[in-house]
């Protein structure tokens, strides 16, 4: 049932993307949508009544896909400091709930944790849910995310829920034999969702010092109650099937204990856990329906996309297939008259072969931005991690070799801002002439193999006709590409990646 609904949704999204890619103004009419997707559900009584008034309002034909919002209520944040200050302001202003989810929270982020504490103290009706990854959140015995967050439970035991998602793929001999850090290659929770009452920040950033200072990422704030509620439901659903942090009764050792989810543990009963988790997550993924939109009032569509392959959820894969299909239809219909470019970025550029073939099949200019070795988050690391930037250099060289002689221009650039690292990921589609994006994809996914098959990701596909929002997105693209340098095959070859690094990268490329 769910797979059929998502497939239908992807077809609807493809139709919308084709419409905009062909340069057609406005939004497709309800009639054209009904003709293309006759299985859409009937309007709610409120929507039908609005239709009966003949032009007073109309049910949004896109409510099957996501949420129509006012583009003026979407803010594109551009700096780590701006993101941090906005996040803290949202937490301070929360009156009902604070829902935060990231890979981890830095154990030294006392200022952020104090901000949460003060908000809960000031607003006694506010509840807080924090969801992080089990493996990353417990790394480091004496100082980690859990030790930093546990005092919040001590202070507000009935109002704070701290949960740690554990992949059901790390069990048995893998759990026993694969050491910490290496076991994180099996699968992680990778959300970056921060919902407070009617505000949502969706990002690719974690909650630690470098992400608040000199690690560039992407951040979008959406001031819409339904959107914030949707993503909060997703986080809370995953939290319900995750380990719960409980302050230990005996204050010995770590001072907290991790309580496995019931009725099934992802470690002890992975098969049953997957079925249970999928059933718990499914209702949270459903878009609220029955929306009635005043004519001209809303000009931006937010399409939620969750990818949780270990739990049987493939929204992002299906919806992105809809995006690519829509672009392909437009390219085939218009040929050389097509007037749009693809801008793509990932701090860890490891595009799957399927995605690469799809992008190349569009026959449109593609601009790719990734991290230079010095801007890679693993640059200067200890142990085997120090070879990761070289591995990405090799992956870049394979990409350029693959696209050599392609019909369309493919430009690869590397972010090289002194003293900064690079972590954004996403996609923009914009006309060649105006360069005002009408579609962007933002969130946690790097569009690589592990994003599709190992990790739990959350994205938003944003389609807009709002001129001011399009200008903000254009400025975002310009800002990210400004400190970059175009690289060619000869530049990458000059770095002389060791043959053993190439072999290891080839064998393990599906793990990063």
UniProtKB/TrEMBL annotation:
Main location: mitochondrion
PANTHER family: CDP-DIACYLGLYCEROL--GLYCEROL-3-PHOSPHATE 3-PHOSPHATIDYLTRANSFERASE, MITOCHONDRIAL, CDP-DIACYLGLYCEROL--SERINE O-PHOSPHATIDYLTRANSFERASE
InterPro entries found in the cross-reference section: PGS1, PLipase_D/transphosphatidylase
Limits of the PLD phosphodiesterase domain: 185-211
GO BP terms, alphabetized: cardiolipin biosynthetic process
Protein name in the entry: CDP-diacylglycerol--glycerol-3-phosphate 3-phosphatidyltransferase
Cited Gene3D superfamilies: Endonuclease Chain A
Function in brief: Functions in the biosynthesis of the anionic phospholipids phosphatidylglycerol and cardiolipin.
EC number per UniProt: 2.7.8.5
EC class name: transferase
Pathway where it operates: Phospholipid metabolism; phosphatidylglycerol biosynthesis; phosphatidylglycerol from CDP-diacylglycerol: step 1/2
Organism domain of life: Eukaryota
Similarity comment text for this entry: Belongs to the CDP-alcohol phosphatidyltransferase class-II family.
GO MF annotations, alphabetized: ATP binding; CDP-diacylglycerol-glycerol-3-phosphate 3-phosphatidyltransferase activity
